[in-house]
Design brief:
- It is a single chain.
- The chain is an alpha/beta fold.
- It contains nine helices and twelve strands.
- The strands form three sheets. The protein has a six-stranded mixed beta sheet, sandwiched between helices.
- β1 and β2 form a beta hairpin.
- α3 packs across α4.
- The longest helix has 18 residues.
């Protein structure tokens, strides 16, 4: 279990997170929603085990398997969770297949060079990025880079047998993607995680993507939890209006077993 217990984060007088409680079980997908500045990325960084640097001050604790995350060695953490940051960067001219292979460095049992290459290739296929394998990743579009870096995260957690629960943390993974790849990426992540019992925490801006692909949604407003639960219970007209300052109307989705949230500017 990945557990955030009473997380409070501040910069000076500004509160980014306030006494946040969250438990994420292996195999479930939790989407984190909220307007800009709600605390979404701060939460994800703390769940990933980043040490807060001044001026950020943090209280509370993140635990994995009941053990404080800061007590895990870096290699141990890397074997139990993979992170796709909001704007991943590669400083050198690595090809897409090389970036995907970087995810294998934390593996408990590594195979031959050929086996490791094949794992990276399969990960690229899962994210619809295999055709980019030989390209310099820095020459790719933002959406193409996101799919390559997600493949590296898949490769990092590739083994189906693990010593304990593992987690995939995604910060706005669909931001640079076209419509088809938004759905494709979230479908691929859910299928990959379901097969391996991996929990997903993903920051999203699209309420309807969250409603379709998340088991639970966490709606933050000014660092506080405005709602936490199944999409149909959290994404009500009143809650969406309070969280985003818009008018909202919730309908039955004609193509999926999920609510469809229509929004418009506040009157």
């Amino acid at each position: 279990m990945l557990h955030a217990d009473g997380l409070t984060a501040r910069i000076g007088e500004r509160t980014l997170l306030q006494a946040l409680q969250l438990q994420v079980a292996p195999g479930e997908t939790v989407a984190v929603l909220g307007e800009n500045g709600a605390g979404k990325s701060t939460l994800l960084r703390l769940l990933a085990g980043e040490r807060p640097a001044p001026p950020l001050q943090v209280q509370g604790e993140v635990r994995l398997d009941g053990r404080a995350l800061h007590r895990w060695r870096a290699l141990e953490r890397a074997r139990r969770r993979a992170v796709l940051p909001q704007r991943p960067e590669v400083a050198f001219a690595f090809s897409a297949i090389e970036v995907a292979q970087l995810g294998r460095h934390a593996a408990v049992q590594r195979g031959s060079a050929g086996q490791e290459y094949e794992i990276a290739a399969q990960a690229l296929r899962l994210t619809d990025a295999w055709h980019l394998a030989g390209r310099d990743v820095n020459t790719l579009s933002g959406g193409e880079q996101a799919r390559v870096h997600l493949a590296a995260a898949f490769a990092q957690l590739w083994e189906e047998q693990a010593d304990g629960p593992r987690y995939l943390l995604l910060d706005e993974p669909t931001a640079a993607l076209d419509l088809a790849h938004q759905h494709g990426l979230l479908l691929a992540a859910r299928a990959f995680a379901a097969r391996r019992g991996i929990g997903i925490v993903t920051v999203l801006h699209d309420l309807n993507l969250a409603a379709m692909y998340a088991d639970r949604v966490l709606l933050l407003h000014l660092g506080r939890v405005l709602g936490l639960g199944p999409p149909a219970s959290v994404l009500s007209e009143a809650t969406v209006a309070a969280g985003f300052g818009v008018r909202a109307h919730v309908l039955a989705h004609p193509l999926a077993a999920a609510p469809l949230v229509a929004t418009a500017a506040a009157a």
